[in-house]
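Methods: holo model generation. Sequences were used as deposited, without trimming of termini or removal of tags, and paired with ligand SMILES retrieved from the corresponding compound records. Each pair was processed once, and we did not select among multiple samples. The sequence and flavin-adenine dinucleotide SMILES for this entry were:
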Amino acid sequence: MVPEKFIRKVMDVVGTDDVIHSSRVTEVYSTDASPFYGRTAAVIRPENENEVSEILKLANEFSVSVVPRGGGSGTSGGAVPKDAVVIDMKKMDRIEVFPDDMIVFVEAGAILHDIKNALSRYGLFLPPEPGSLKIATAGGFVANNGSGKRGLKYGGIRNFVVGMNVVLPDGKAVRMPSRTHRSPGIAHQIFTGSEGTLGVITGIYFRVIPLPEEKRTYLIHLKKRDNLNRILREVLKATPDAVEYMDSRTSSAIGFEPFDLLAVEILGKDRCAEKIMERLGGHVLEGRDEEDFWESRETLGAEIAKKGTRVYAGEDFAVPFSRLNEFIGQIYRIERETDSEIFIYGHLDTCNLHPAIVSKSFENAMETARRISRMALDMGATIGEHGLALRWEFARGLEIFRRVKYCLDRRNILNPGKFGI
Ligand SMILES: Cc1cc2nc3c(=O)[nH]c(=O)nc-3n(C[C@H](O)[C@H](O)[C@H](O)COP(=O)(O)OP(=O)(O)OC[C@H]3O[C@@H](n4cnc5c(N)ncnc54)[C@H](O)[C@@H]3O)c2cc1C
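and the model returned the structure below.
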């Protein structure tokens, strides 16, 4: 139970309107996009770093657990509280672009899509882009070490974080600013991928790069799925910026012909890449057609959810390249055995697949997810980019992580229960 006195003191810090008790609201905050559920004692909405710091100091004084939350789009239960208060970071959404340094500073609650728009006004962009661009916050994306499109060429979001402001579990605020593209980043990098367990990220400095003057997307229809590995290898020779895959069911769900397809994005003019695309029968999308395609890709998750009970579980796997075809085949086997419907898509430049499960019931969807996860573990696959929080069976090196956690958060105030801690 969270003491009444703690709540009253927090109200003194953030104001009564920004501490929410109503069960209608706390219920929404008791889950994220995952199928996991917890209990939220109250939702607190700070407006600045100082308020975050005071909340954590009070949480220590009263031994109250705290869970930081961004857009709540995580699919591994990272923002699911275990009888805790939730700090909703979305009021902290300032975005400041330093165009001459090609750096953007954002408060942690800024939505990725807003950051994209702010940067494009200066002819700049941040390459990693998740399918959840319109709902995910910068803080949640960094805390999950997310990635999305363009992972092979640019890496995940970790590669773009050059500085950070963070409040430690005891309430101490630490600032690590950067206006440079390289930075001695040991300290801030600890928080990238820490899934809200080591500190509350309040601000992030990202390095960004110029938007290319030209870009193209090629669609390659795959007549036979057996050829996927071979064709992918050919596509990668073109050093593409992004390679997105959709199986035939997924491509028809968003209005394309029912073929498996690869969407290959090439930024800038590259004659060699064009030749490879022509050889592979790539069909060029430009202008409005290209924009429409990528918009459909962003809303894919929502379109699939209209087909039945869609459960975001067992749906993010980084697969060894050599086992790609076999992995897809195994998913269809599990689909047949569990009588569910699975839409497979993903970021194939990093062999990161998202089998989206649609089923007639929640229980059946969960059983399908469990079987896919077991199969993935057997094949040496792991979680790709959606976080490990309540799915730590895929984690490696947990012993080291536990020691770091113990150093920074001896009382386990921040996001307890994640990674089994
Ligand atoms: C339709 C759909 C598509 C998706 N596509 C992708 C994709 O392509 N690539 C990808 O990487 N992910 C994807 N995801 C997963 C998810 O959107 C990302 O992990 C996203 O980065 C989470 O951001 P969020 O703001 O919603 O975080 P939340 O879900 O709110 O939180 C995620 C984790 O971060 C912690 N956290 C949040 N804010 C802070 C903070 N300020 N300080 C410290 N910790 C914090 C939370 O405690 C939690 O552990 C997708 C999800 C959906 C539903």
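The longest strand covers residues 200-207.
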